[in-house]
Write a structure and sequence with these properties.
The complex is a heterodimer of chains A (857) and B (522). By secondary structure, chain A is of the alpha/beta class. Chain A has 27 helices and 33 strands. Chain A has a seven-stranded mixed β-sheet with strand order 15-14-25-24-23-16-17, with helices on both faces. A six-stranded mixed β-sheet of chain A has the order 29-31-30-33-28-32. Chain A has a five-stranded mixed β-sheet with strand order 2-1-5-3-4, sandwiched between helices. Chain B has three domains: 17-240, 3-Layer(aba) Sandwich (Rossmann fold); 250-333, Ubiquitin-like (UB roll), CATH 3.10.20; 338-452 and 474-521, NADH-ubiquinone oxidoreductase 51kDa subunit, iron-sulphur binding domain (de novo design (two linked rop proteins)), CATH 1.20.1440. Helices cover 41% and strands 10% of the residues of chain B. Classes of the chains: A alpha/beta (857), B alpha/beta (522).
């Protein structure tokens, strides 16, 4: 915050003296003084335009009434908002707005929460004088989701401005003029945009609505719960609205941003806003399943839990604790992640626990902790909005972390932030990045190390450029800009850690940050500020890391130091690092791992080399899966336990920046499903270790007590408008003291048989785990496809939309080709979430870069 | 409707400055322009004068903006923040005020006069890029300007190192897309930037501070720049010898309507309205008497004959209770129905409202609907006060002057001719006879894009038919619901004609029909 004593302006509004910072708008100053000025077009997140004329006020020395949403305060200004003249102006504007308004309030989604209704009630006159024929207009779809009802529009342009200023998309513009003016997409057609639906959110009336929600419920029917989004690691706050306040029905009918709360400023992306349908999916598991005679059949909870406890105890008895392994989830709550570790380590006695199901090679917990310690203390999202230079390595932000991206988009547009991008594919950040290094896939470690070397003047640009496959002068310019920037945020995406040498990449990133950090920016006194942000792909990736779902550390990056947990968790805690997911699966394939407990994970479609994973899972003697759906992994299980979704339980998530926030129970679990922590507690109890938790909050209290990283956490403190509980591991010893790890091969040579490099990842509409179960998201992205560059498509004779077959040494897939303009020749991109085309069957866990060939079908 | 102006001929005088050679058919060519002393001012400025001296000349001449606001041009240039570059000079050639057709004559007949003024202004303010924002419908003007710019480049009056000096200047014509609002300077700038033309938020109050691409921009009317040409060429005294002290110079006066000799005349500012009407306009038509005059285009208050003796300049017209505006003098004689005239004027603004702010977007159609009812004999006694109340509700509350202008003709018509409104209501018909104010499809061209439904419901409770569609055959693309029989073809024809605002105005009645005939005749 800037110094509050400077630049304060004092003015009088309706006789009340109020002091506000210079530059404040009169409408905001009035709000501070407790005076409500009605507005339509004015919005705290958008630039003022003064179009609706609702906020007219009288200001001394100004001849006419003036819009308070565009007028900045001045010292000694005298504002009147409660005179008859102002009241008449407001009533006049409302009369105009209602003259061609359809007044179909009983059939309007906004009825009951509509600014026009509220303002008319407070400031309007009961009788209008408009007796002419109304110009009314039909509902018009803006496919695929949004519907427009122009007869309700007040022409505030909030939708257009949000799309421009925050989303940076600009999909909407006004067309026509006069009373026929309307916001519309290009040629008044469908919306070719991110489908985020924020235009609906900012609409003060019911002019924009979503097809999924339209006419489904009235505000009175809805129970609202403030909770969190379950998709990416940005941790957006949202309000879950459940129908059934009166009828007892439980059905999510809408999720929306919660104004004034959370890190996301009311923003939600398309997954957050429309991806809730999986909760109400008919495919949800509603009761436990037990395998009998090769078939999964329904069972009671007692039967299922007894079976789990008996079999686990038996296997531990026969083969030892290390014959048991557990794969946890990045989606469950902190409490559940903590209890899963406690169950495996404390009750069953093994360190075989991991949450990573996609990584070919697991990184070391210490590598991660080193980077996390370099995170900005104010929170990464705030920092992204205010940094002068952002370096984006290995992240497809649009798809993976939409709100992080929108922070950058706002900063580049409004505050001249610069963005340097290193990514092998053409992705949306290319549009606003100042530089784009299109390095060869899989060379991220070499690139980061090379940049560190260039910044320290210890490396040759030509050499590094050859290794990573870019032009030397481009690389040099990239490094130069890094050197010169006064402050830098280094943003590391999942691709950095996805290769076969994640530790090298993470160490190189730490070294780069450190090398940059000691440099003095031109004209500044101190060292320059460098922050590292490790992006989290899932809602609780960070929580799973923090709370020890890693084989080589106990919660809080304690390593193998069991001291803090010993009496509480159990007497003899295992002290040797356990097996990571790849190691567990390998052990399962060799018959060494006899039992596997999978909590909300789906290695059968996530882990590279799908066929082998399926074999490994089949080779496990006893497989327990706890999930929302009968996933391919669950289909192979011996016991399947139905879990509650994020909307049906209490707990906390830790977002990518380390902010702990609360997720709340908005509805009853479907069927007999139970929260994961309850199931884990029941299993532990049947294994002879009754835990005492009556609620998730009690688990959280235990975490606070035992994990120093989370000390001081209390559920009450998380209820502030924005949770201010940020966790950050303590800094480790300087990275430079460690030897530079060699590794990170150069661009893999193309091979004749498999000429294409295959990249997999998520898209905006699907993050791969839960979104495919949401019918709304399935509608947005229905069919599996592979992105192919136009040049390659031409060579192969493949047209957009034709079916092709991808063949790798590991397997083959048949799917549609999508010719991507501007795509890089030789690189294919395959979204990894489609059930009919599980990308992992093509991947090779041992290869640094996956290669395939394309056959025309 | 009597056929008017058949015996009259539109004409232009050989004025003292801007119109000195306007009747020379070859004047648009640079050779003839040079023969007539063209570009001598530019030579003089570049050889002998500093930019500051050019500004000083303009200040001494007390040149005031000819777009209508009469803001001192030199003072406007002085508002450009020093040291901020690049800066731009933009000519507002989006002449679309009804009754105004002066800039068009200059651009078609003597375009180099404008070019020279623009280059001089660019030199004065330190700009190197000039844009002429030209109204879309001016085909011939566009051709003539393109030709003139090409000639100017060929002769070294544009381009790099003009006439051997260190001054560079480029010029381009930008054609608008047919919106009246783009004559408003900030909407013009948005349109010039490639955006939808809508007025910008003020402050910044003047484009001089933050204009095109947020850079300092000198933006004035075509006529203003042409005056700069003559002030620099012949010195400020050539300008100040005309007009009154506060408002010197000549003015191009566009005289249209019920006069014998409509035309564009270059006259000294300060002559009386009566002189314009009788000496230059030739007086009223056979057997008619003057009834009303709008001195400055459609947005200015209408004056009755007892105000004809006020001097025709900025201050004089304010005293008379109107504004000089663009000096589009529209004359109406006693055959004119003032309700119909007000209706036509309001419908113009209804059609041209950009839709940004509520009072203008919703108020204009409301006014026009009531006026149409009164004109067609369906007025009620309370409608007249309702009109005034709506005007009050719009007055001072619109985003820009378009909405503020729309209520002006209504107010002044009621102020001076309230008895005509009352007569319409009392008799249930237009006393001037039916048919002369054909409602046509003009107000419906935009509505043709929407589906209109009549909800004959009183008051605010109307229209609660949810989700319903338009069920009236023929109302889909045709005119109003009241005329469902109007075919699609006719509506399309109307929409197509509407591109030419003159023709569109022509359909609307006696007042503007004159203007249309007039500009066609020229």
């Amino acid at each position: 915050m800037s110094d509050a004593t400077v630049d304060t302006v004092t003015l009088t509004i309706d006789g009340i003296e109020v002091s506000v910072p210079k530059g404040t708008l009169v409408v905001d100053a009035a709000r501070k003084a407790g005076i409500e000025i009605p507005v339509f077009c004015s919005h705290p997140k958008l630039e003022p335009i003064g179009a609706c004329r609702m906020c007219l006020v009288r200001v001394e020395k100004i001849p006419k009434l003036i819009t308070s949403c565009t007028l900045q305060v001045a010292e000694g200004m005298v504002v009147t908002t409660n005179s008859a003249e102002v009241a008449a102006a407001r009533a006049g504007v409302l009369e105009f707005l209602l003259s061609n308004h359809s007044l179909d309030c009983p059939f309007c989604d906004k009825g009951g929460e509509c600014d026009l209704q509220d303002h008319t009630f407070r400031h309007g006159v009961p009788e209008g004088r408009f007796e002419e024929p109304k110009i009314l207009r039909q509902k018009k779809p803006m496919p695929p989701i949004i519907e427009k009802v122009m007869s309700r529009c007040v022409h505030c342009a909030r939708c257009i401005r949000y799309c421009d200023e925050v989303m940076g998309v600009g999909a909407l513009r006004f067309i026509n003029r006069g009373v026929c003016t309307e916001p519309a997409a290009f040629m008044d057609g469908g919306l070719a945009c991110e489908q985020c639906g924020n235009c609906i959110e900012v609409c003060p009336v019911g002019a924009l609505t979503a097809e999924f929600y339209d006419l489904k419920a009235r505000p009175l029917d809805r129970k609202q719960t403030n909770s969190l989004c379950q998709y990416c690691g940005d941790g957006c706050t949202m309000t879950i609205e459940v129908k059934g306040r009166h009828s007892g029905e439980t059905h999510i009918i809408r999720t929306r941003g919660h104004d004034g709360q959370g890190v996301n400023d009311e923003f939600l992306c398309v997954r957050g806003r429309f991806g809730y349908g999986m909760v109400n999916s008919p495919e949800r598991l509603k009761q436990p399943l037990v395998r009998r005679d090769g078939e999964l059949v329904p069972a009671t909870w007692d039967e299922a839990l007894d079976l789990v406890a008996t079999r686990l105890a038996e296997i531990r008895e026969r083969h030892g604790a290390d014959a048991i392994g557990g794969i946890g989830s990045e989606k469950c709550t902190n409490e559940e992640a903590y209890l899963f570790g406690k169950l495996l380590r404390g009750v069953l006695g093994t360190n075989n626990v991991d949450y990573r199901t996609e990584a070919k090679r697991p990184f070391q917990a210490a590598s991660l902790a080193r980077l996390l310690a370099l995170a900005p203390p104010e929170g990464a999202l705030w920092r992204l909005r205010h940094a002068r230079l952002v370096v984006l390595v290995g992240a497809d932000l649009t798809s993976e972390n939409p709100w992080s991206e929108k922070q950058i988009i706002q900063a580049t547009a409004k505050d001249h932030q610069r963005v340097l991008l290193a990514y092998p594919r053409r992705i949306r950040p290319v549009e606003y990045a100042s530089r784009w290094l299109r390095h060869a896939p899989g060379t991220e470690p070499a690139l980061l190390r090379g940049l560190a070397g260039l910044v320290a003047n210890e490396a040759q640009a030509e050499q590094v450029a050859a290794t990573v496959g870019v032009a030397p002068d481009e690389l040099q310019a990239f490094a130069k800009e890094l050197q010169d920037a006064p402050d830098v945020v280094l943003l590391l995406g999942p691709r950095v850690c996805a290769g076969t040498d994640p530790d090298a990449a993470m160490l190189a990133a730490a070294q780069l940050a450190q090398t940059l950090g000691v440099r003095r920016p031109a004209g500044a006194d101190g060292p320059k500020r460098v922050d590292v942000v490790v992006l989290a792909r899932h809602n609780n990736t960070r929580g799973a890391q923090d709370l020890g779902l890693l084989p080589d550390t106990y919660p809080g990056y304690a390593g193998m130091k069991t001291a803090g947990f010993a009496p509480e968790w159990g007497e003899a805690l295992p002290t040797r690092p356990g097996k990571s997911t790849p190691e567990m699966l390998a052990a399962a394939a060799h018959g060494e791992l006899k039992a596997l407990y999978v909590l909300g994970a789906n290695p059968a479609v996530a882990f590279p080399d799908g066929e082998r994973v399926r074999q490994a899972l089949a080779g496990v003697e006893f497989l327990v899966v706890q999930d929302l759906f009968l996933t391919p992994t669950a289909q192979q299980a011996d016991v399947v336990l139905p879990a509650a979704s994020f909307a049906e339980k209490e707990g906390t998530f830790t977002n990518g920046e380390g902010r702990v926030q609360r997720v709340r129970r908005a509805m009853e679990p479907v069927g007999e499903a139970r929260a994961d922590w309850e199931i884990l507690q029941a299993v532990a109890g049947r294994l002879g270790r009754p835990w005492p938790y009556l609620s998730a909050g009690e688990v959280a209290r235990e975490i606070t007590r035992l994990v120093p990283l989370y000390a001081g956490l209390s559920y009450q403190a998380l209820d502030l408008p924005v949770s201010n509980f940020l966790v950050r591991p303590a800094p480790l010893a300087a990275a430079a003291a460690e030897p530079v790890v060699s590794g990170g091969a150069g661009p893999a040579a193309p091979s004749g048989e498999y000429p294409f490099v295959l990249l997999t990842g998520q898209t905006l509409f699907h993050s791969g785990t839960l979104s495919p179960w949401a019918p709304e998201m399935r509608r947005l992205a229905q069919h599996a496809y592979v992105e192919i560059a136009p040049e390659d498509a031409a060579t192969l004779g493949v047209a957009d939309g034709e079916r092709v077959r991808l063949v790798s040494p590991r397997g083959a897939l048949s799917l549609f080709a999508h010719v991507q303009p501007g795509g890089a020749p030789g690189i294919l991109f395959l979204p990894h979430h489609f059930a009919e085309a599980p990308a992992n069957v093509l991947l090779d866990a041992a290869a640094a870069v996956d290669r395939v060939r394309v056959e025309k079908e | 409707m009597p056929v008017v102006n058949k015996e009259s001929a539109a004409r232009m005088n050989d004025g003292p400055l801007l119109f000195r050679y306007i009747n020379d058919p070859e004047q648009y060519r640079i050779t003839r322009y040079l023969q007539h002393g063209g570009y001598a001012g530019l030579r003089k400025a570049l050889k002998e004068m500093t930019p500051a001296q050019v500004v000083e000349y303009v200040a001494q001449a007390n040149l005031r903006g000819r777009g209508g606001a009469f803001f001192p041009t030199a003072r406007k240039w002085g508002l450009m923040p020093p040291g901020v570059f690049p800066r731009y000079v933009v000519a507002n050639a989006d002449e679309s005020e009804p009754g105004t057709c002066k800039d068009r004559q200059i651009m078609e007949r003597d375009p180099h006069q404008l070019l020279e003024g623009l280059i001089l202004s660019a030199y004065a303010v330190g700009a190197e890029q000039v844009y002429i924002y030209l109204r879309w419908e001016f085909e011939l003007a566009a051709e003539r300007l393109w030709g003139a710019i090409r000639e100017a480049y060929d002769h070294g009056f544009l381009g790099q190192r003009i006439l051997g000096s260190n001054f560079n200047c480029d010029m381009a014509v930008h054609r608008g897309a047919g919106a009246y609002i783009c004559g408003e300077e900030t909407a013009l700038l948005d349109s010039l930037e490639g955006k939808r033309g809508q007025p910008r938020l003020r402050p910044p109050y003047f484009p001089a501070a933050k204009g095109y691409l947020s850079m300092p921009t000198a933006l004035s009317n075509v006529e203003t720049y042409c005056n700069v040409t003559h002030i620099v060429r012949e010195g400020p005294q050539v300008f100040t010898q005309f007009g009154r002290e506060k408002c010197p110079g000549t003015k191009l006066v566009c005289l249209s309507g019920h006069v014998r000799q409509p035309g564009v005349y270059e006259l000294p500012l300060g002559v009386s309205l009566r002189e314009i009407l009788y000496e230059w306009g030739g007086g009223p038509l056979e057997g008619r008497q003057f009834k009303a005059v709008i001195p400055g285009g459609a947005s200015m208050p209408i004056l009755p004959p007892d105000k004809f003796d006020y001097p025709f300049d900025f201050e004089g017209m304010v005293e008379a209770g109107s504004m000089i505006g663009s000096a589009g003098v529209i004359v109406m004689d006693d055959s004119t129905c003032m309700v119909g005239a007000a209706m036509n004027l309001v419908r113009f603004f209804e059609h041209e409202s950009c839709g940004k702010c509520t009072p203008c977007r919703e108020g204009c159609p409301w006014l026009s609907q009531i006026l149409r009812r009164i004109e067609h004999g369906q007025g009620r006694p309370k409608d007249i006060d309702l009109l005034l109340a709506i005007c009050q509700q719009m007055d001072g509350k619109c985003f820009c002057l378009l909405g503020e202008s729309a209520l002006v003709p209504v107010r002044s018509a009621i102020q001076h001719w309230r008895h005509e409104f009352e007569q319409h209501v009392a008799e249930g018909r237009c006393p001037f006879g039916d048919g002369h104010t054909d409602p046509g499809t003009r107000g419906d061209t935009d509505e043709a894009r929407v589906q209109r439904r009549v909800v004959a419901r009183r008051g605010m409770g109307g229209g609660a038919v949810p989700g319903g569609g338009c069920r009236q055959p023929g109302a889909h693309r045709g005119g109003s619901a009241g005329q469902p029989e109007r075919g699609t073809g006719a509506a399309f024809h109307a929409a197509a004609c509407d591109r030419d605002a003159d023709r569109a105005v022509a359909r609307d009645g006696p007042l503007c029909r004159l203007g249309s005939w007039f500009s066609d005749a020229l």
